[in-house]
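Supplementary Methods S3. Complex input for the MU-OXO-diiron-bound model.
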Amino acid sequence: MNNRVEQALNEQVSKEASSSQFYLAMASWAENNGLNGTAKFMYTHSDEERFHMLKLVKFINERGGKAIIPQIEQPPKEFNNLENVFERLLQHEIAVTQSINDLVDVCLQEKDYTTHNFVQWYVSEQLEEEALARTVLDKLRLIGGDKGGMYMFDRDLENASIITAPASDNQKK
Ligand code: FEO
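Predicted complex, serialized as C-alpha coordinates:
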Protein backbone atom coordinates (compact mmCIF):
# COMPACT_ATOMS: atom_id res chain seq x y z
CA MET A 1 0.00 0.00 0.00
CA ASN A 2 1.20 3.51 -0.82
CA ASN A 3 2.89 5.01 2.29
CA ARG A 4 1.23 8.40 2.12
CA VAL A 5 -2.20 6.87 1.65
CA GLU A 6 -1.57 4.45 4.52
CA GLN A 7 -0.54 7.31 6.80
CA ALA A 8 -3.58 9.39 5.84
CA LEU A 9 -5.88 6.41 6.45
CA ASN A 10 -4.31 5.83 9.86
CA GLU A 11 -4.82 9.48 10.75
CA GLN A 12 -8.47 8.99 9.89
CA VAL A 13 -8.61 5.90 12.13
CA SER A 14 -7.50 8.15 14.97
CA LYS A 15 -10.13 10.79 14.16
CA GLU A 16 -12.96 8.25 14.04
CA ALA A 17 -11.80 6.77 17.36
CA SER A 18 -11.76 10.27 18.92
CA SER A 19 -15.24 10.92 17.53
CA SER A 20 -16.51 7.74 19.16
CA GLN A 21 -15.06 8.79 22.54
CA PHE A 22 -16.34 12.34 22.17
CA TYR A 23 -19.92 11.17 21.54
CA LEU A 24 -19.64 8.65 24.35
CA ALA A 25 -18.78 11.54 26.69
CA MET A 26 -21.84 13.42 25.40
CA ALA A 27 -24.01 10.33 25.95
CA SER A 28 -22.82 9.96 29.51
CA TRP A 29 -23.33 13.67 30.24
CA ALA A 30 -26.88 13.50 28.81
CA GLU A 31 -27.68 10.40 30.83
CA ASN A 32 -26.53 12.11 34.03
CA ASN A 33 -28.70 15.12 33.22
CA GLY A 34 -31.96 13.22 32.73
CA LEU A 35 -31.84 13.53 28.93
CA ASN A 36 -32.39 9.88 28.10
CA GLY A 37 -33.38 10.43 24.47
CA THR A 38 -30.24 12.44 23.81
CA ALA A 39 -28.19 9.81 25.65
CA LYS A 40 -29.58 7.05 23.42
CA PHE A 41 -28.88 9.14 20.32
CA MET A 42 -25.30 9.74 21.41
CA TYR A 43 -24.62 6.13 22.42
CA THR A 44 -25.79 5.06 18.97
CA HIS A 45 -23.70 7.74 17.33
CA SER A 46 -20.65 6.67 19.32
CA ASP A 47 -21.14 3.08 18.08
CA GLU A 48 -21.42 4.35 14.51
CA GLU A 49 -18.10 6.14 14.84
CA ARG A 50 -16.47 3.01 16.17
CA PHE A 51 -17.81 1.22 13.11
CA HIS A 52 -16.29 3.93 10.89
CA MET A 53 -12.96 3.31 12.59
CA LEU A 54 -13.18 -0.49 12.25
CA LYS A 55 -14.02 -0.24 8.57
CA LEU A 56 -10.80 1.73 8.04
CA VAL A 57 -8.70 -0.64 10.18
CA LYS A 58 -9.89 -3.64 8.17
CA PHE A 59 -9.39 -1.91 4.84
CA ILE A 60 -5.81 -0.90 5.67
CA ASN A 61 -4.89 -4.43 6.80
CA GLU A 62 -6.65 -6.15 3.90
CA ARG A 63 -4.71 -4.01 1.42
CA GLY A 64 -1.34 -4.94 2.88
CA GLY A 65 -0.88 -1.92 5.12
CA LYS A 66 -0.63 -1.84 8.91
CA ALA A 67 -3.48 -0.28 10.85
CA ILE A 68 -2.34 1.57 13.96
CA ILE A 69 -4.70 1.54 16.93
CA PRO A 70 -4.37 5.03 18.36
CA GLN A 71 -4.13 6.51 21.80
CA ILE A 72 -7.18 8.66 22.41
CA GLU A 73 -7.38 12.05 24.09
CA GLN A 74 -9.70 12.44 27.06
CA PRO A 75 -12.96 14.00 25.81
CA PRO A 76 -14.66 16.82 27.78
CA LYS A 77 -16.44 15.82 30.99
CA GLU A 78 -18.89 18.70 31.09
CA PHE A 79 -21.06 20.58 28.62
CA ASN A 80 -22.90 23.85 29.26
CA ASN A 81 -26.25 22.71 27.89
CA LEU A 82 -27.87 20.73 25.09
CA GLU A 83 -27.30 23.42 22.48
CA ASN A 84 -23.63 23.47 23.39
CA VAL A 85 -23.50 19.67 22.93
CA PHE A 86 -24.93 19.81 19.42
CA GLU A 87 -22.87 22.84 18.45
CA ARG A 88 -19.74 20.94 19.38
CA LEU A 89 -21.00 17.90 17.52
CA LEU A 90 -21.53 19.95 14.37
CA GLN A 91 -18.12 21.62 14.63
CA HIS A 92 -16.55 18.22 15.15
CA GLU A 93 -18.26 16.78 12.08
CA ILE A 94 -17.19 19.76 9.97
CA ALA A 95 -13.58 19.07 10.99
CA VAL A 96 -14.00 15.37 10.15
CA THR A 97 -15.39 16.28 6.73
CA GLN A 98 -12.31 18.41 6.10
CA SER A 99 -10.11 15.52 7.06
CA ILE A 100 -11.99 13.15 4.71
CA ASN A 101 -11.56 15.71 1.92
CA ASP A 102 -7.82 15.78 2.61
CA LEU A 103 -7.78 12.00 2.43
CA VAL A 104 -9.54 12.09 -0.95
CA ASP A 105 -6.92 14.56 -2.10
CA VAL A 106 -4.03 12.29 -1.08
CA CYS A 107 -5.67 9.35 -2.93
CA LEU A 108 -5.89 11.40 -6.12
CA GLN A 109 -2.35 12.73 -5.82
CA GLU A 110 -1.02 9.19 -5.33
CA LYS A 111 -3.34 7.79 -8.04
CA ASP A 112 -4.75 5.24 -5.59
CA TYR A 113 -8.18 4.85 -7.16
CA THR A 114 -9.17 1.81 -5.11
CA THR A 115 -8.81 3.73 -1.86
CA HIS A 116 -10.41 6.74 -3.49
CA ASN A 117 -13.41 4.58 -4.25
CA PHE A 118 -13.49 3.21 -0.69
CA VAL A 119 -13.34 6.70 0.81
CA GLN A 120 -16.42 7.83 -1.15
CA TRP A 121 -18.55 6.00 1.43
CA TYR A 122 -17.18 8.40 4.05
CA VAL A 123 -17.83 11.40 1.82
CA SER A 124 -21.54 10.50 1.66
CA GLU A 125 -21.65 9.69 5.36
CA GLN A 126 -20.24 13.12 6.25
CA LEU A 127 -22.87 14.84 4.13
CA GLU A 128 -25.60 13.05 6.09
CA GLU A 129 -24.03 13.62 9.48
CA GLU A 130 -23.50 17.33 8.95
CA ALA A 131 -27.05 17.77 7.65
CA LEU A 132 -28.46 15.90 10.62
CA ALA A 133 -26.44 17.93 13.13
CA ARG A 134 -27.65 21.18 11.50
CA THR A 135 -31.29 20.04 11.60
CA VAL A 136 -31.08 19.10 15.27
CA LEU A 137 -29.36 22.37 16.12
CA ASP A 138 -31.99 24.39 14.25
CA LYS A 139 -34.71 22.65 16.27
CA LEU A 140 -32.93 23.38 19.53
CA ARG A 141 -32.58 27.05 18.62
CA LEU A 142 -36.29 27.23 17.85
CA ILE A 143 -37.13 25.75 21.23
CA GLY A 144 -34.86 28.22 23.01
CA GLY A 145 -35.05 27.73 26.78
CA ASP A 146 -38.62 26.36 26.79
CA LYS A 147 -38.68 23.39 29.19
CA GLY A 148 -41.73 21.72 27.62
CA GLY A 149 -40.14 22.02 24.20
CA MET A 150 -36.92 20.54 25.52
CA TYR A 151 -38.80 17.58 27.00
CA MET A 152 -40.46 16.89 23.64
CA PHE A 153 -37.17 17.31 21.82
CA ASP A 154 -35.48 14.74 24.05
CA ARG A 155 -38.39 12.32 23.70
CA ASP A 156 -38.39 12.69 19.91
CA LEU A 157 -34.69 12.00 19.81
CA GLU A 158 -35.24 8.78 21.76
CA ASN A 159 -37.75 7.50 19.23
CA ALA A 160 -36.02 8.74 16.10
CA SER A 161 -34.14 6.30 13.94
CA ILE A 162 -31.28 8.67 13.63
CA ILE A 163 -27.75 8.55 12.33
CA THR A 164 -28.53 5.70 10.05
CA ALA A 165 -26.85 5.29 6.74
CA PRO A 166 -28.95 4.28 3.73
CA ALA A 167 -30.21 0.68 3.89
CA SER A 168 -27.75 -0.49 1.26
CA ASP A 169 -24.84 0.79 3.35
CA ASN A 170 -26.24 -0.73 6.52
CA GLN A 171 -26.17 -4.10 4.85
CA LYS A 172 -22.48 -3.64 4.12
CA LYS A 173 -21.88 -3.00 7.79
FE1 FEO B 1 -17.24 9.18 11.24
FE2 FEO B 1 -19.09 11.38 12.25
O1 FEO B 1 -17.60 10.92 11.36
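The chain has one domain: 3-172. Residues 163-173 have pLDDT under 50 and may be disordered.
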